[in-house]
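Supplementary notes for students who missed Thursday's class. We covered one full example, reproduced here. Read the sequence, then the structure, then the short commentary at the end.
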Amino acid sequence: MTRSERLLQLLDILRRHRHPVTGVAMAQELGISLRTLYRDIASLQGQGAPIEGEAGLGYVLREGFLLPPLTFPVEELEALVMGARWLATKGDEDMARAAESALARLRAVVPPALRTEMDLTTLVVGGPRPAPDQVRSDALRQAIRQQQKLHITYRTGEGALSERVIWPVALAFFDQSRVLLGWCELRGDFRSFRTDRIMAATATGATYRPPRKKLFDDWRRAHGLMAADRN
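Structure (token representation):
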């Protein structure tokens, strides 16, 4: 979580409480230290947020505080709504929840006229949902971000099981499936793994080299995507 995301979450927590909430409770919800929480509150106060209270007693956000409204051309707003709706329908459980939360957050800060456009947009996402995953996708995304090697149990389309150690580099989302892209130590090459066929995944505790970005660029180059990006 970036600091800006944490500050927005802190404001959300304060908005939910009509009475003072303690720094300890907010720090626990955000997963940060009390010292960091106090620094964040001071930073928000310095930027004009009307947060009242003090350490040991609790804090409350004075009513009437609004973030500056965001404005978008209607086409940009529809693109954002469409993308979020696609993820809410085709994404894994965590991404779907994040997409719905992002839409609600966006709706709260756009001007009323754009809020109406969001509510009335007729862009819809069709088709079946992808098959459910056996392994939580947040564990896969964390392994990608941290460049952690994964030991996976994978079931092929024919039903055979195999054990692999892979270097995960990206998650690809398609209409009817989600695919984990990575370097497979068993094959000595890049491979794609449908996430609904990954029966188990365990972080090995080892990191891989070279950096994930270089591996991802190598994968794109191997599939002819680098040249396509330049055209």
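Commentary. The chain has nine helices and seven strands. The chain has a mean pLDDT of 87. If anything here is unclear, bring it to office hours.
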